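Researcher: Structure prediction, please.
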Amino acid sequence: MVKHYNKRYKSDGFYWGIQPNDIVKDALSFVSKKGNALDLGGGEGRDAMFLASNGFKVLVVDKAKEGLKKARSLADKNSLHIKTKNMNISDFPFSGEYELISCCNVLQFLEQEEVFSIIKKIQLHTSIGGLNIIRAFSEKNPEKHFPFLFKSRQLEELYLIDSWKILKYEEFVTPYEVHPGFPMHQHGIAQIIARKKG
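Model: Predicted structure follows.
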């Protein structure tokens, strides 16, 4: 999978474009404090650029080094400062706290135990009042070959605990879309914005 994305990210242009995921844009209206942000599986940096342009200090973690090269190039072009770390998000050595942690379109590539472990770490290393943004494929996804797909309401249930307030939760199937090298297709999505309570 890493070879696949490195190859695609090495081509001209931005494979996913430069506009942030809608769920990341939506989260900005809930931000109470800007500070450190962590973008797990950030690819070419489209969400990181959006967060950095809105006052966050962003660390992007991704296993595909070609994507991170583009993220740094885009940041330089726009006079934005981001940091990058080339590694599997499952191996990321969490420390300290972040005002915002985003993890979009990557958890479906991991095994179930990795997914639950990462979400626990994300929750633990979010500051009081900070946000979590998670978007991943669900069982409504037409293609079932991914290692992990969220069951109905499963992502929501991980945040139905006393220390978190769910600000937005959605499950849906996307309209048909086309990515270079793939036929027209749809995705089943589960996504959440949640705030850590004191």
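Model: The helical segments are 2-10, 22-27, 46-53, 65-77, 112-124, 154-157.
Researcher: Thanks, that helps.
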